[in-house]
Amino acid sequence: MSIGAARAYTNIALIKYWGKQDEQLILPMNSSLSLTLDAFYTETSVRFTSELTADRFYLDGQLQNEKQTKKVSSFLDLIRHKYDVPQFAEITSNNFVPTAAGLASSASGLAALAGACSAALDLSLSPTELSMLARRGSGSACRSIFGGFSEWQKGDSDTTSYAVQIPSDSWEQELAMLFILVDDAQKDVSSRDGMKRTVETSVFYEGWLTAVADDLVSAKQAIATKDFTLLGETAESNALRMHATTLGATPPFTYWSPDSLKAMNLVRACRLEGIPCYFTMDAGPNVKVLVQKKDADRLTARFAEEFNENQLVLAHAGPGIEILDSERSLTYD
Ligand code: 2P0
Predict the structure, then answer these.
(1) Is 50 helix (H, G, I), strand (E, B) or coil?
(2) What span, in angstroms and rounded, lies between the C-alpha atoms of 153 and 131?
(3) pTM for the complete prediction?
(4) pLDDT > 60? residue 100
(5) Which of 110, 139, 170 delimits the end of a domain?
(6) Ligand 1, atom 17, residue with closest C-alpha
(7) Which residues have CB under 6 Å of ligand 1?
(8) How much distance in Å is there from the Cα of 260 to the middle of ligand 1?
């Protein structure tokens, strides 16, 4: 019997991953760049045992059904195949989020799972190898291996596509991100389905690929020179470009809801009022606002005038993956 456990924090992309060149290997069409955050994380323990005849997955204390276990089991199948492991596993995973507003993240979840498997099987992987492995579970998970800023270099094969930490002289410690949790009245399009539809059908996808390469250069320059305005403007434009591709898909779709627009407009108003801040959005209606730590309280107070306080969560830069004492983690059962 082998046991391992890990904690991984979620990350939010400032330059988005949007589209795959290889769906099986999860190789992206473009490189991306993210900030790992402290406010949302997942702790996962994995126990491989010959007592089981199928994987058993507990999420936040609830035993998951076969459909809910599929993504985890597919990842474990990969591990079993790659490392010649015959056993099934019991997986216990807990998402630590400040509210119950659907903020569970595949980035933190699959990164923690990869770390727990690596610990359980004593694989002695380097951070780069762990990033490659986490990528096979969920693309964005490869960036959560590292704290602070990380860049997922797209590569063109299983061993050339992984994240690296971006040197920043700890500049990320001066930044914060305010999450605006927005109700979603629409039917969800998963990020996996959304990016696939966009790559295959969007008349704007070529434009995205051209723009994102330049945006990445600008974002890295901004980090190197600690230029908050350049980083914020680049991230906001990049998010809008990603979301523009969904309107050019067949059938068209959008992740925006009326309250997403309200939050975006409030960010623009805050800038005019003298609070430098910039928004980004992912495959859902929530809006995330990049701000300097020194302005975070003012920004939060301004948003509290227009949104409920329980819709607002302030996050700061977070650490990379941590391997946990597996005995401790098993007490979450
Ligand atoms: C990102 N997103 O860079 C982008 C921006 C959503 C929008 O990575 O199919 O859950 O498992 O590789 O990592 C969400 O996609 O997708 C994502 P898969 P994943 O953060």
Answers:
(1) coil
(2) 11
(3) 0.96
(4) no
(5) 170
(6) 140
(7) 13, 16-18, 26, 32, 106, 138-140, 191-192, 282-283
(8) 19
